[in-house]
Amino acid sequence: MQFKLSYLIFLALFITSCQNKEPNIVIGNNIKNKTRQKIPLSIYDSLQDGDIVLRKGDGPLSFHLMNNTKEEYTHCGIIFKGENKWEVIHSLGGEVSKDEIDGVQTMDLDKFIEYSADSVLYICRPVFMDSAGYKVVERANYYLDKKVPFDHRFSLFTEDKLYCSELLYHIFKDINNGKNLFIVKKKHKSYMLMFSTFFKQENFIKVYDLRKDTHIKV
């Protein structure tokens, strides 16, 4: 019974970490905005369609998630060039507001970066196949056009609903002849997609690390 309760708490924390929340700290009855993160303007010149962006979510729930997964990152998305700016395709769980989208959606890259906690933001480029970036964006737009809802049950092996890393999991499989690229581990009787996937140099190369404020020319 105690194990089951621990698992339910863990699942609730994981779900909430992917919700669409503002990066605020609550102190008593006051809300204090955290420092908004930024990256150098020169990095934007290094970006390409299909680059992958990872960030650490804000707040104690993401902290608890990291304690369970033993990883630093809690959210991810796919970078693409919009009409006049860089944007991100990702999946977020909507809340009570009718104005919020539940599922696959787009966000300005600047806004995505601002919500990174503790300067934990990482950008990498898929190189596991020719023209990987173009194919990733093309397939991401397929799920975006379908308006796939957020997977609040976190059932990994279905495509009708998708949480953040699950979206990338299926995109990579779709363009890679059904071959999985993700590191998958079993946590609390549930299969988890690990962000350590993006540090496998044979499949992804680093573009930028906000915490170290470093990037390579690619």
What is the CATH first-level class name? Answer: Alpha Beta
Tertiary shape: globular
Low-pLDDT residue intervals, each spanning 5 or more residues? 5-10, 21-32
Helix content: 25-40%
Q: How far apart, in Å, are the first and last alpha carbons?
A: 51 Å
Count all strands and give the number.
11
How would you state the average pLDDT, rounded? 82
Strand proportion, as a percent range, falls in 25-35%
Largest sheet: 7 strands, antiparallel
Describe this structure as you would to a colleague.
Helices cover 28% and strands 26% of the residues. The chain is α+β, with helices and mostly antiparallel strands and 218 residues long. It has a single domain, classed as endopeptidase fold (from Nostoc punctiforme). The strands form three sheets. The protein has a seven-stranded antiparallel sheet. The chain is globular.
Helix and strand arrangement:
Elements: H1 2-17, E1 24-27, E2 30-33, H2 41-44, E3 52-55, H3 60-69, E4 75-81, E5 86-92, E6 103-108, H4 109-114, E7 121-126, H5 132-145, H6 164-175, E8 183-187, E9 190-194, E10 204-209, E11 214-215
Antiparallel strand pairs: 1-2, 3-4, 3-7, 4-5, 5-6, 7-10, 8-9, 10-11
Helix pairs in contact: 1-3, 5-6
Structural key phrases:
218 residues; alpha+beta; endopeptidase fold (from Nostoc punctiforme); two-stranded antiparallel sheet
Describe the structure in brief:
This protein has a single domain (2-215), classed as endopeptidase domain like (from Nostoc punctiforme) (endopeptidase fold (from Nostoc punctiforme), Alpha-Beta Complex). The chain is built from six helices and eleven strands.
